[in-house]
Structure formats: structure tokens, C-alpha cells
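SEQUENCE, C-ALPHA CELLS:
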Amino acid sequence: MSDYTAYLDFVESHVRLNMPDNQLFERLQSMIAPLTIEASSSTGKYPVYEIDLRYKNPHRLPETADQITETELAFAGYCKMAATESHLWQVFPDRASLKIERDKGRAEIFAKEAHVSLALETCLMLALEDMIDLSGQFILHAASLRVPNGKGNILIYAPSGVGKTTTTLSLLREGFGLCSDDGTILKNHDNGTTGWGLPRDMKVHKKTFEMLPWLTPYFTEQWNEEGEQRLTRNTISDLFPIFDKDPQPILCVFALKRSKRNQCAAMPLPPIEAAIGLTADNVRVSQHGLLPGQNRRFDALLSMISTVPVYQLEVGTDLRAIGPVIKNVLEEIG
């Protein structure tokens, strides 16, 4: 059994996270500090999803499981995934692994101590995605920002490296508030979609830093091997409004596209194009089709697109033009 337990509030579901020690939990604080609650009595009426993280040799894939994929994940390495009707495995051989028991609402993460970062950054995130899906919510790889009048959020989506963080930082200077620059938790309703941002520190690439000179006081000359530095939510909380665990109506979704032109422009995006872009980056598939549980996310994305307007946001070299373009769209849709 674990020696340290933390409870995390995901708005309409809670996580009981069992870990070997509080030092390991402290390593997660930059990602989950705003989600932490005091005790099980705070979980209220919502279901609890349990995750056990242990220092053990990784799981072995059962011979009866159907192999889903075998691939190299960026910054994570060689990985296998397999499934049965009620279980899903993610295994990084000799390093770390995850077993999800969907019928029981729990997950188990095993990791050798030397590879615990892999367990926290990759296996844990997949377990949290499963919990979010089971709660009736779904997670989208997208930035979310509070509009300047404080009444609603916008989403900005694009594959990694296209410029979500650069665009987010530019919009903060235009009066928008930060929910998240990378992950948003959404829930569909009969008349629309609400969402709140997963509170994680920003990973700012050196190229973004060079485009936004006002960031200079908040960075050093020490960049990691991916050319990034962290910009914490605490660091920018004195500069811009930060919103944690505050679901708001989604007013508009923007598909981000980079342009070499100086101008910035927005135009309505046909639903089929929006569906292709969103599912390509947010719904996991294998040669056998959708991974277990992903059909729920696919349906949720299509439902969101049917009620929330989607625009293509073409961002040029003049980053100061992004804010006025988005504000004009918000005025047009009322």
C-alpha cells in the first residue's frame, strides 16, 4: 500500500492518488497544485477515481490482451499498448507502465525510481484522461482563455509546435485571462459546451521568447534540451488574471494556422474540417480502430462542433493583430 494519499478535484469527479511518499507528490505540484483538496470529505457527491502509483517493475502485457500499438512517443520512447474488454495497458518496457481498470474506475502505475518522471508525465496523464471521460467530461488538447469581459471562454487548438502558447501569451497582453495554454476540460450540454483549463505551468520555447521581448525579465539563459523553460502560473498571476476550476460557456473555437504574412485573419471553418482537425489531435486510434473509451470522446467532439462556432485563425508575423481579430469575431457572433 502507499504511504501518502492526495485528493484532486476535477470539478465533476475526484481522484484519490496513492503514492509512496509526499516527495513524489511534490514533484507534481506544478501541474496539479490548484486541483489539490484537503481530504476525502471534500469530494462531496461526485465519484472518486483511484490511482495507485508504486515503485515496482512495470506490468507485463497479458497474453490474452489484444495489442493496439507499438510505437515511439516523442520525449517518452518505445511504448506498447494493449487492451481487453475492460482493461487498458500502456507499457514502457523496463521503465514504467499503466494498467487502467475501466469497470472499477481505477488505475495502477508501476515505475522504477529512475523512471518516475515518465510515469508522472505520460502514464498519469493517460489515467487522468480516462477518469475525465468517465465523469462525463472530456479533455481537449487546446488552449482556453477567458474573454476580456469575463463572460465565457474561447478555445484555440492546433498540433504541438504550431503556436498555442505564443498565441496565448499574446492574447494575455490584449486583456484575455489564462485558463490553460494546453489542456481544457469540457462538458457538453443541450445548448452548448462549458469548459475549464487544466492548471499547468507553461513550457515556453526559445522561439516564443524571442518573438515576445516583454518576457525577458521572467527567463534565464538556461534552456533545456527541448529549448524550453517553465513559466509558472504564480509568476504571471500578478500580470494577468488566472482562472482555476471555473467552468464557463465556450463561445468560440479557433483552429490555429501559421502564416508568413504580416496580417492576422479569421474565417468560419466548415464543421467537417473542424472535426477532422480536432479528432486527429485528440482521439487515439490504432490499426484496429478507436482505442477503448475513445468513441465517447469522438462523439463529444462532434457534439461540441454542432453547437459552438468554429473559425480558422490565421496568425501572421504581427502578433499584436491577434487580439483585435478575435474580439471582432466575438462581436459578430454576439
